[in-house]
């Protein structure tokens, strides 16, 4: 069997810092667990624009298509805010998602025991929380045509199109049902079928797919009610499936609610490749955090956990993924905290690399 | 001066129950404060469909256009879920918003002191919270064309269009800046300018309008970050302005976070009529709550506070509005609680009409 390949795209802001810690972890697995990867690294986002005038060079795109998995840090920063829409850092990320056809974005919203106090929610509302949001990632209003800013009469009009085909809904729904089967067999689908026809179709197709999963308890909720219920009592959910735009807001809200934002990984999965592995990209849920970039303050755990997801979903190394996740639990239980996990406590935070080293030690 | 006119549309579910309490309040103002209204009542939503086969009869629409203000309860219920999209209860509400051109939906998210414990958020995060969300209400993906479910190849495609003109953004932005001027002079505008061209135009126009309000501190946030920040530390906001769909989710999340969902009113305002009053509709933020309808359990306060907003925004009776709001504070401070405000406390709740009577007594 050939060595599995990994393309690392650290990106902007705190991306490179947190990714440096992931590399330590990757090296550790090579040295100690005989799990070696063929690792290459490249640019995405603002740094790619700075070098190539585009947030994702065609060569990078081609590499991403060839490797077994992509690990991405984060993209964006204020210095790119005034760039034209077509070359903004985000376009690099969106191109990767679209061209790799990574239609299922898995975003666990988990509350780490050691951090339950850190949520803005009451402890009993979040302690032990463990839900999975499956967000459609390659369609909807992110990619629908027509789009743009046009002239009409004597003013400009901004236009975007939400567009979902039955097969696009079907495949992401199946993915969510499969996940629900491995978890607590509850799936809640969210849309605005009371207002949007694309939501009507979404609800119909999800209901239809549900017939193939009679064991899964399927429910439907309007996305606004879903936002409310996530804030009120998130533990009512197991798996949530929703579209690209609703998924963007709802998964971010859910992530923040756990109090563990700097801790949350994500996996974006596509169809199986020739070798049976799914096309895949892994990235932390947090952004590029330009305000703290380069200061060694960032929390590398979300990015390390994204690598754990890669071990599980791309490389069939569930046991090794669990080993890594347990190491992180140990480190947290031992009291290691980066600045974002400290709040008012007044303790001294550990740096990004100290946190990485602690994880290696715990491994 | 002619007697101001009010059209009451109780709607479905708990709508009629909570509206009955508002009528007591209206009668009180007539008897005790010499503030009389010419009140008429009609159907909207599922009950209108049951009687007329349409969720809003043309005659009702015409009446709504003529009166000084509309008071609406809530629409919808499970018995209407299988209705065709075009006659769903929600279409009645959406038609009122659109044809009355009620472009600015004001949704205060306030935490009532007596209820701070009731939020799923920690007390210090919500106590004293008082923000105002201004949601665009007559455009965007709710109304954009093309829309529908079409056949393409051998499958169906669900389509909706987000569409914003400069003037649509301009007018709602102005409204939000005006409100900010009367409050703490901070406005945060939310969109997804990193992903949607309609968001790019939104940000540009809001920035432009901001030049007319140099005293207001304007900021911009991506809507997903906005959802996060609302969950993390909502007190960072004063006024928020956002589009129809983001406003739907964000205002519901914010309302739930206050712990005072059954308490929150809203005002939907349009352009001034010939008599100088704005076109206006007032409604509680909560929905029709079919699960508790007809049981005398509903909390009428949101609907009563919606009438208070009508006094303030339509009838220039700010002092009387404050009188009514103070009466509600008194009632809460005295310990009156409908079932939704009790949680685990095990006290006996008061009924919908007992709450209404208590408000009258406090007045
Ligand atoms: C950076 C941005 C384009 C992206 C999105 O909107 O999808 C981000 O918010 C995310 O959720 O991954
Ligand atoms: C009932 C529904 C059509 C409505 C909306 O989506 O606008 C509601 O959720 C609201 O926020 O007023």
TrEMBL record, chains A, B:
<dbReference type="InterPro" id="IPR024084">
    <property type="entry name" value="IsoPropMal-DH-like_dom"/>
</dbReference>
<feature type="binding site">
    <location>
        <begin position="77"/>
        <end position="90"/>
    </location>
    <ligand>
        <name>NAD(+)</name>
    </ligand>
</feature>
<keyword id="KW-0479">Metal-binding</keyword>
<dbReference type="GO" id="GO:0051287">
    <property type="term" value="F:NAD binding"/>
</dbReference>
<feature type="binding site">
    <location>
        <position position="224"/>
    </location>
    <ligand>
        <name>Mg(2+)</name>
    </ligand>
</feature>
<protein>
    <recommendedName>
        <fullName>3-isopropylmalate dehydrogenase</fullName>
        <ecNumber>1.1.1.85</ecNumber>
    </recommendedName>
</protein>
<keyword id="KW-0464">Manganese</keyword>
<keyword id="KW-0100">Branched-chain amino acid biosynthesis</keyword>
<feature type="binding site">
    <location>
        <position position="248"/>
    </location>
    <ligand>
        <name>Mg(2+)</name>
    </ligand>
</feature>
<feature type="binding site">
    <location>
        <position position="97"/>
    </location>
    <ligand>
        <name>substrate</name>
    </ligand>
</feature>
<keyword id="KW-0460">Magnesium</keyword>
<keyword id="KW-0432">Leucine biosynthesis</keyword>
<feature type="site" description="Important for catalysis">
    <location>
        <position position="142"/>
    </location>
</feature>
<comment type="subunit">
    <text>Homodimer.</text>
</comment>
<feature type="site" description="Important for catalysis">
    <location>
        <position position="192"/>
    </location>
</feature>
<dbReference type="InterPro" id="IPR004429">
    <property type="entry name" value="Isopropylmalate_DH"/>
</dbReference>
<comment type="function">
    <text>Catalyzes the oxidation of 3-carboxy-2-hydroxy-4-methylpentanoate (3-isopropylmalate) to 3-carboxy-4-methyl-2-oxopentanoate. The product decarboxylates to 4-methyl-2 oxopentanoate.</text>
</comment>
<feature type="binding site">
    <location>
        <position position="135"/>
    </location>
    <ligand>
        <name>substrate</name>
    </ligand>
</feature>
<feature type="binding site">
    <location>
        <position position="107"/>
    </location>
    <ligand>
        <name>substrate</name>
    </ligand>
</feature>
<keyword id="KW-0520">NAD</keyword>
<dbReference type="InterPro" id="IPR019818">
    <property type="entry name" value="IsoCit/isopropylmalate_DH_CS"/>
</dbReference>
<comment type="similarity">
    <text>Belongs to the isocitrate and isopropylmalate dehydrogenases family. LeuB type 1 subfamily.</text>
</comment>
<keyword id="KW-0963">Cytoplasm</keyword>
<dbReference type="GO" id="GO:0005829">
    <property type="term" value="C:cytosol"/>
</dbReference>
<dbReference type="Pfam" id="PF00180">
    <property type="entry name" value="Iso_dh"/>
</dbReference>
<comment type="pathway">
    <text>Amino-acid biosynthesis; L-leucine biosynthesis; L-leucine from 3-methyl-2-oxobutanoate: step 3/4.</text>
</comment>
<feature type="binding site">
    <location>
        <position position="224"/>
    </location>
    <ligand>
        <name>substrate</name>
    </ligand>
</feature>
<dbReference type="GO" id="GO:0009098">
    <property type="term" value="P:L-leucine biosynthetic process"/>
</dbReference>
<feature type="domain" description="Isopropylmalate dehydrogenase-like">
    <location>
        <begin position="5"/>
        <end position="359"/>
    </location>
</feature>
<feature type="binding site">
    <location>
        <position position="252"/>
    </location>
    <ligand>
        <name>Mg(2+)</name>
    </ligand>
</feature>
<keyword id="KW-0560">Oxidoreductase</keyword>
<dbReference type="GO" id="GO:0000287">
    <property type="term" value="F:magnesium ion binding"/>
</dbReference>
<feature type="binding site">
    <location>
        <begin position="287"/>
        <end position="299"/>
    </location>
    <ligand>
        <name>NAD(+)</name>
    </ligand>
</feature>
<dbReference type="GO" id="GO:0003862">
    <property type="term" value="F:3-isopropylmalate dehydrogenase activity"/>
</dbReference>
<keyword id="KW-0028">Amino-acid biosynthesis</keyword>
């Amino acid at each position: 069997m050939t060595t599995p390949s990994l393309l690392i795209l650290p990106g902007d802001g705190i991306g490179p810092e947190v990714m440096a810690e992931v590399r330590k972890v990757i090296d550790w697995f090579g040295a100690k667990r005989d799990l070696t990867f063929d690792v290459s690294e490249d640019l995405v986002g603002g740094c790619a624009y700075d070098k190539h005038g585009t947030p994702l060079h065609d060569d990078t795109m081609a590499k991403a298509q060839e490797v077994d998995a992509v690990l991405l840090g984060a993209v964006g920063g204020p210095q790119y805010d005034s760039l034209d829409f077509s070359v903004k850092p985000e376009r690099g990320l969106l191109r990767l998602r679209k061209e790799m056809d990574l239609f299922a974005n898995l975003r666990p919203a988990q509350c780490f025991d050691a951090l339950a106090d850190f949520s803005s929610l009451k402890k009993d509302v979040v302690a032990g929380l463990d839900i999975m949001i499956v967000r459609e990632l390659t369609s909807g209003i992110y990619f629908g045509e027509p789009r743009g800013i046009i002239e009409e009469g004597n003013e400009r009009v901004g236009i975007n199109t939400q567009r979902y085909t039955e097969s696009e809904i079907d495949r992401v729904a199946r993915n969510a049902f499969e996940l629900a089967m491995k978890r607590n067999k509850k799936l809640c689908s969210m849309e605005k079928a009371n207002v949007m026809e694309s939501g009507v179709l979404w609800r119909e197709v999800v209901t239809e797919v549900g017939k193939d999963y009679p064991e899964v308890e399927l429910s439907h909720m309007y996305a606004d009610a879903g936002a409310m219920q996530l804030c009120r009592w998130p533990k009512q959910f197991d798996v949530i499936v929703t579209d690209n735009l609703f998924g963007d807001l709802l998964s971010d809200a859910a992530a923040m609610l756990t109090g563990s934002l700097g801790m949350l990984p994500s996996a974006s999965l596509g169809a199986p490749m020739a070798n049976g592995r799914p096309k895949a990209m892994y990235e932390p849920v947090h952004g590029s955090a330009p305000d703290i970039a380069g200061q060694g303050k960032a929390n590398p755990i979300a990015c390390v956990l994204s690598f754990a997801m890669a071990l599980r979903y791309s490389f069939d190394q569930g046991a090794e993924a669990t080993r890594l996740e347990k190491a992180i639990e140990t480190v947290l239980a031992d009291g290691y905290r980066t600045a974002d996990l400290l709040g008012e406590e007044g303790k001294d935070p550990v740096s990004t690399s100290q946190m990485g080293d602690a994880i290696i030690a715990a491994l």
